[in-house]
Predict the 3D structure of the following.
Amino acid sequence: MLKIYNTLTQQKETFKPLIAGQVSLYVCGMTVYDLCHIGHARVLVAFDVIVRYLKNRGLSVKYIRNITDIDDKIIQRAQENHESITELTTRMIEAMHEDFAQLNLMPPTQEPKATESIAEIIQLIQILLDKGVAYQAENRDIFYAIDTFKTYGALAHQDLEKLRHGSRVAVELNKQDPLDFVLWKAAKPNEPSWESPWGPGRPGWHIECSAMSMAALGEQFDIHGGGLDLVFPHHQNEIAQSEAATDKKFVQTWIHVGFVQVNRQKMSKSLGNFFTLRDMLAEYPAEVVRYFLMASHYRSPIHYSQENLQLAQAALQRLYTTLFEVDNLGASGHPEINQDSLTTLLSSYEESFQAAMDDDFNTPEALAVLFVMTHEIHRIKATDPNKAILIAQVLKKQATVLGILQQNPKDFLKSGVQQIDSAKIESLIQAREKARAGKDWKTADAIRQELEQMGIALKDTPQGSDWYRL
Ligand SMILES: [Zn+2]
């Protein structure tokens, strides 16, 4: 039974989709004014694994991830760059798609843009005005009146006084309550605007997600997610807008992904301690980045450091080395396998993996199951190669759910050695082959040691020596 921690109830709950067999999921996507950083990558890898796992469990998943392509930051950045908003957002969306493809993120079912959802947004604001929960201020901006929503603050589990005190909302004369939030911003000179019944303007951020999620998934859906920083006010505001408009429970399960920390501080643009996903992908293979992000549970904070990335790389290399060795085993032709005990063994690995993932998508536990299989492969590969090959197949199948071990082991193990002179490696291997052919074992051993010092291991096969990175 799949259990998911719901931010709204602060409990792990048995997950039961509103429509049996189908999951509706909305994740707040990027505001496209800059490149994605590791914090974004963490959120999106977490949901990528969630979607993969739900599908693996036989559910169909409608996964919506929006693009915020109109916003104060976008307007400001475009002005700074002396380019149009469309030029900036088109460039950033392209870069985002490149980064996501490199990270092997599955594309969402739909990727709606705020600027293409203005009609839905206007319609929703009109309903809120008609119901008397929104008002137009003197400056013509339209605000949501939070005192009309009884459970405002429930998602953050804080009372209104604390939120008013803690949110450091700029006191604005136009608002009736400091926590009231803008639904529609009246047009200002040199800013893009759209016609509306209340004059030209542009949407606020929160209303975009209510409008886009309900347009794609209906008034009620299963899972809404994002980074932990979106709990308040963004997701609380989405609940207030959507539930006031429909009088129905908006979302069943709220999933929030923890922060990436650098030196115990949250990684963020405002603190200036962020790394772009692109920087990280230039340094590490995408699967290493994924492994690093999955090595902690999605709700815990994760610590960004070179050391943790190198640990992830070493762990992934161990898994690939195992697969590489199994690839070279070859079946013995004498299967001494007791079929019943083998089936039990293989399904016990699958069950352990599923139990880990069923427990609120516990990826560190799921990765541990992959290592249990790896140890067993090493234990038996010499005596029972057929069984080792079958376990490796299960290992690869489970790893697919996590989006790792998707490459040819040999290619992965050779990757990242561009810094090392591969021509030199090849010539040393040739020299070693020559020495071996002439039975000069001393020279052959010396060359092997020299290669090991370069971080290169050799694998002698009937076709000659192959090499991989230690
Ligand atoms: Zn959102």
About this structure: Residues 28, 209, 234 surround zinc ion (CB under 6 Å). The chain has a mean pLDDT of 91.
